[in-house]
Amino acid sequence: MIGANGKCELKEPLLGNSSSTAVSLPETIQNGDDKVRSISFKVNGITCASCVISIESALGGLNGIRSVMVSSLQGQAVVKFIPELIITKAIKEAVEDAGYEVEDFPEQEIEVCRLRIKGMACTSCSESVERSLLMVDGVKKAVVGLALEEAKIHFDPNVTDTEHIVSAVEDAGFGADIISSGDDANKVQLKLEGLSSPEDATIIQSSLEALDGVSSVDLDWKENRVTVLYEPDVIGPRFLIKCIEEAGDSSKKFHASLYNPPNRRESERLVETQMYRDQFLLSALFSVPVFLFSMVLPMLHPYGNWLDMKVYNMLTVGMLLRWIFCTLVQFIVGRRFYSGSYHALRRKSANMDVLVALGTNAAYWYSVYIAIKALLSHTFEGQDFFETSAMLISFILFGKYLEVVAKGKTSDALAKLTDLTPDTAHLITLDQDGNTVSETEISTQLIQRNDIIKIVPGAKVPVDGIVIDGQSHVNESMITGEAKPITKKPGDKVIGGTVNENGCILVKATHVGSETALSQIVQLVESAQLARAPVQKLADQISRIFVPVVVLAAVVTWLTWFIPGEVGLYPRSWIPKDMDAFELALQFGISVLVVACPCALGLATPTAVMVATGKGATQGVLIKGGNALEKAHKVKIVVFDKTGTLTLGKPNVVSAVLFSTVPMDEFCDLATAAEVNSEHPIAKAVVEHARRLRRKYGTETEQIPEIRDFEVHSGAGVSGKVGKDIVMVGNKRLMRSFGVPISDEVERHMTEVEQLARTCVLVALNGKIIGAFAVTDPVKPEAGRVIAYLHSMGISTVMLTGDNWATAQAIGKEVGIGRVFAETVPSGKADKIKELQLKGMTVAMVGDGINDSPALAAADVGMAIGAGTDVAIEAADIVLIKSSLEDVITAIDLSRKTISRIRLNYVWALGYNILGMPIAAGVLFPFTGIRLPPWLAGACMAASSISVVCSSLLLQSYKKPFHVEYA
């Protein structure tokens, strides 16, 4: 058996039967530190001991196999192997090549890990990281988020591990740190005290491994830390700590506490911000004197005359000082650009660092050439560009500093969500009578399933749970966006991170750790921020050729100005004083190099998606990635389910009518027996009403009759046998499908009921209708206004329901939906959506996320409404946490605003390049004398990225376009 950590958890031989034949191979691998895994599978065709030997021989010849045990009686094999040397597929093929059939072979195991990536500057960088990861054997999928600076990797742990994955990123020239791995959900790290020797560590490890529910224990006694992987249904962190403390004796006391690693994301963001700030200040320290010596002091006579003093030959004091200060900037402060360029070119790509390195080096080395020529000549007078190189680096670093600060703001909404959970909680111990025995303040991370937590007024709810005692109002606005406090009484659910306003309540924990709604929301938003939106494809395609095109444009610009200048095709007066044609052309070429920035293009989409998904989460709308965000803005038709979506989803029976001589108590018994096994909301309403009538017309002590041959007829009803009688409960379609006649009296009653927007549930006994229930499900108060607002947005609406036509039409008329499709089975809903899509419509489906899963999956945009605490609905693209229909409008409007913002970001990003590059190339110079010096071009380059990020940040001010005020 393989544990969740991939290690062999085999406590005793799997093939321990005395009649089995087991052969152990000698160890073929010398390194005892290699990771060993174990797999077990069935082998058909084993008839004797010679078959066992054949399989042993076939596997024994493979490099990486540690041992093989084969049972001839059970036809089963257990193989221990080193995944770094052999993959499981090779083991299976070896057995099959030996002439045996393999069954129950473990499917390929896929794990997921997330990495923090350091050093990415543009889309080219993120694509390089992605390519490097996909080249690693065993990596199945890799997604790299530029704005989030993270990567999510799906890999086969039998082939590779996180160490190889991190190495691949580092080989590509970027830094990488592990954020989480696949088994982190049920893993706890504990800090140990009282250990003095490896023997102490062995005692603790053995004690923990002996506990039920503990999958693996990794103890580092030098660091006094232990990591435990456990089953949350069986055991929890508190019991692990208790076990460690009980492992000691009177002479040796052990103590354990939770170990919380520092928030690396925030600390790294702070370090990065400080790094860019410090680099900019250091660069400015040297660049400002260069600027003063070249542009300010020479104009202030006689204060700047000392700069023209000769040091040797024509080399002046000013030129020498500029050379010294610029060298410090170029090679100390600007070292990061050399490093980035080297790694980019080594992976056969180009990024912003390449452009900056080319531009600054061109200016610097030409200036060095001028300085050396002045040093060696008695008559040479030339103009250096040392200030160009120094100021260019300073402006770019200042721009990167502002960009990092702005990018940190894009994840503010998500950071606020993660900080909602309180640090401590009050754990209550109750006796059998429900009286409080003890109250202890514990860390929220130590809460286990089924714990009783006391929540006082003003305190935050630490985990998801159910109220078991007390009554209060809870503010859920931070999770659902609903400002009005919600009444909570025994039996109601509460969500972790919400605030208890007035009463004191006792809550039984049902979801803890990564299972809570808040954790799932954070996970969904983080996944959404990593996913690439289709609109980003344009930026990715442009970025692949961006830098080579810019370099080519810079060379063409230089030649265009240099050659005509040398042959006199434009007036000498165009060339500034103290310059020649070569120097003028060089400045134009450098300006073209540095004005174009691929960073802004790469940040246009992901920063907007980050802000929008985070903002949506705080409004109770969870958007699962850029793809859903982009599709939602194209929606032209919204399809609504009826029950639980347009209606409250809490049906009530308002009347029961008999059409036969069957007594009311017997009628109720038959209906209850048939419907009690159904999960449909209408069935539950029928059972509840029938039981109330039974108490009214008969005795309460009688047992519900047992039903046999129970069958659910999708979209129609249920049937079965009660004793010798055949009972059917359902709609008109069910009765007709079984040939049950419907009399005029029944038809008249059904018509009357359905015209009142109620559902008529018929009950038949042995092929004859004996009675009916009238069921009503009130329409949500906001439904009509939401439908009207969608129509004002140019979006048409449709209702799909399994209910009868008359009721569906009545509901549709009440809320304002003209197109209604009724009596539709769940699978038929998906077909109806496909019909609408064939007409060229982008369709959104709004359903309750349970029986509407096929339709949600078939729609272009699936919206699961009323998810409550179970927010991780796979079929939906967008999860609407609360049950309000207004969030349908919010989701579509937020999508439209975000796509509009992304397009505006592209205008900012491409606008700087489209307008800046011609100006930098000197298009305006012949007519106006305006040119863009390289240092000013560098400032424009930095401004493009900053403007894009700030543009995305404006989405933080998004407000819902439509809000329903409830009475």
From TrEMBL:
<feature type="transmembrane region" description="Helical">
    <location>
        <begin position="545"/>
        <end position="564"/>
    </location>
</feature>
<dbReference type="GO" id="GO:0016887">
    <property type="term" value="F:ATP hydrolysis activity"/>
</dbReference>
<feature type="domain" description="HMA">
    <location>
        <begin position="186"/>
        <end position="252"/>
    </location>
</feature>
<dbReference type="InterPro" id="IPR017969">
    <property type="entry name" value="Heavy-metal-associated_CS"/>
</dbReference>
<dbReference type="Pfam" id="PF00403">
    <property type="entry name" value="HMA"/>
</dbReference>
<feature type="transmembrane region" description="Helical">
    <location>
        <begin position="312"/>
        <end position="333"/>
    </location>
</feature>
<protein>
    <recommendedName>
        <fullName>P-type Cu(+) transporter</fullName>
        <ecNumber>7.2.2.8</ecNumber>
    </recommendedName>
</protein>
<feature type="transmembrane region" description="Helical">
    <location>
        <begin position="906"/>
        <end position="929"/>
    </location>
</feature>
<dbReference type="InterPro" id="IPR006122">
    <property type="entry name" value="HMA_Cu_ion-bd"/>
</dbReference>
<keyword id="KW-0813">Transport</keyword>
<feature type="transmembrane region" description="Helical">
    <location>
        <begin position="584"/>
        <end position="605"/>
    </location>
</feature>
<keyword id="KW-0067">ATP-binding</keyword>
<keyword id="KW-1133">Transmembrane helix</keyword>
<feature type="transmembrane region" description="Helical">
    <location>
        <begin position="388"/>
        <end position="406"/>
    </location>
</feature>
<dbReference type="InterPro" id="IPR023299">
    <property type="entry name" value="ATPase_P-typ_cyto_dom_N"/>
</dbReference>
<feature type="transmembrane region" description="Helical">
    <location>
        <begin position="354"/>
        <end position="376"/>
    </location>
</feature>
<dbReference type="InterPro" id="IPR027256">
    <property type="entry name" value="P-typ_ATPase_IB"/>
</dbReference>
<dbReference type="InterPro" id="IPR006121">
    <property type="entry name" value="HMA_dom"/>
</dbReference>
<dbReference type="GO" id="GO:0016020">
    <property type="term" value="C:membrane"/>
</dbReference>
<keyword id="KW-1278">Translocase</keyword>
<keyword id="KW-0406">Ion transport</keyword>
<dbReference type="InterPro" id="IPR023298">
    <property type="entry name" value="ATPase_P-typ_TM_dom_sf"/>
</dbReference>
<dbReference type="Pfam" id="PF00702">
    <property type="entry name" value="Hydrolase"/>
</dbReference>
<dbReference type="GO" id="GO:0005524">
    <property type="term" value="F:ATP binding"/>
</dbReference>
<dbReference type="GO" id="GO:0140581">
    <property type="term" value="F:P-type monovalent copper transporter activity"/>
</dbReference>
<dbReference type="InterPro" id="IPR008250">
    <property type="entry name" value="ATPase_P-typ_transduc_dom_A_sf"/>
</dbReference>
<feature type="transmembrane region" description="Helical">
    <location>
        <begin position="935"/>
        <end position="955"/>
    </location>
</feature>
<dbReference type="InterPro" id="IPR044492">
    <property type="entry name" value="P_typ_ATPase_HD_dom"/>
</dbReference>
<keyword id="KW-0677">Repeat</keyword>
<keyword id="KW-0812">Transmembrane</keyword>
<feature type="domain" description="HMA">
    <location>
        <begin position="37"/>
        <end position="103"/>
    </location>
</feature>
<dbReference type="InterPro" id="IPR036412">
    <property type="entry name" value="HAD-like_sf"/>
</dbReference>
<keyword id="KW-0187">Copper transport</keyword>
<keyword id="KW-0479">Metal-binding</keyword>
<dbReference type="Pfam" id="PF00122">
    <property type="entry name" value="E1-E2_ATPase"/>
</dbReference>
<dbReference type="InterPro" id="IPR059000">
    <property type="entry name" value="ATPase_P-type_domA"/>
</dbReference>
<keyword id="KW-0547">Nucleotide-binding</keyword>
<dbReference type="InterPro" id="IPR036163">
    <property type="entry name" value="HMA_dom_sf"/>
</dbReference>
<feature type="transmembrane region" description="Helical">
    <location>
        <begin position="280"/>
        <end position="300"/>
    </location>
</feature>
<dbReference type="InterPro" id="IPR018303">
    <property type="entry name" value="ATPase_P-typ_P_site"/>
</dbReference>
<keyword id="KW-0472">Membrane</keyword>
<dbReference type="GO" id="GO:0005507">
    <property type="term" value="F:copper ion binding"/>
</dbReference>
